[in-house]
Write a structure and sequence with these properties.
2 helices, about 30% strand, alpha+beta
Length: about 60
């Protein structure tokens, strides 16, 4: 299980936007986003480059801390 910190989330809509973005990244599964902790956790079915994860979060309008 991997965990990344995400900045800019303020509500449930933010959580869903980040989760949806990460679920589109090939190789990620079991994506969970926690608003209170400001983080996302996920499993990697295969190695996924960190920049692909960062790009998905940034395209959704948030930042990886």
């Amino acid at each position: 299980m991997a965990t990344i910190k995400i900045e800019g989330m303020t509500c449930g809509h933010c959580v869903m936007a980040v989760k949806k973005a990460l679920m589109k990244v090939e190789g990620l599964k079991d994506v969970q986003v926690n608003l209170e902790k400001g983080e996302a956790t996920f499993e990697e079915e295969k190695p996924v480059a960190a920049n692909l994860i960062r790009e998905a979060v940034e395209k959704a309008g948030y930042e990886v801390a």
